[in-house]
Amino acid sequence: MKTLFTYFYTVLIAFCITSCETDVPETDTIAPSFSFKITGDGFDRTFTQDDDLEDIQLNLRAGISYDFLLGGIDQGGVRQIQFQHTPDVTPITTPIPSPWVEINNTLTTVLRFNGDPNNAITAQLLSGTFTATLGDDQMTFDTFYIRVEDFGGESGPPFNITEGLLKISIAEQPTAVINL
Hints:
10% of the residues lie in helices and 46% in strands. By secondary structure, it is mainly β. It has one domain (2-179): Coagulation Factor XIII, subunit A, domain 1 (Coagulation Factor XIII, Chain A, domain 1). The longest helix has 18 residues, at 2-19.
């Protein structure tokens, strides 16, 4: 099943990258959107900017690997996508493909895509696998941070920005979304 998931999304990524070119409009006042799909441990859910992320938490089962697919979308072109996580808590076990870059500091890792206004695309996807890791504690709390920016049109800034912060907990627990 995991091989089928990887194959399907690899084909989707290749299709999207080659077929989603766009022209940056003169002005752009429409905010971009994101989609963050997580599957594993019998769980399958897609989170978007329309979810009430402040009032939910994703519970992950310690030691389980999860597949994810992150997409940033904007009809006027995607300028930048960022995905921030804590590598000690949710290490990504798959290689990060170009054109994404990985920026590490002592506490967090940021995966970043930088768009080109001269070769703008409407969407960019990133797929991979992470493992929910529990240290010596019985439960760990953390977050996934997602940020998508567009070009703001040819006239430039201000850029339209959409952000999301998904709270997660890792423990010996079923994978589920709970309301806070």
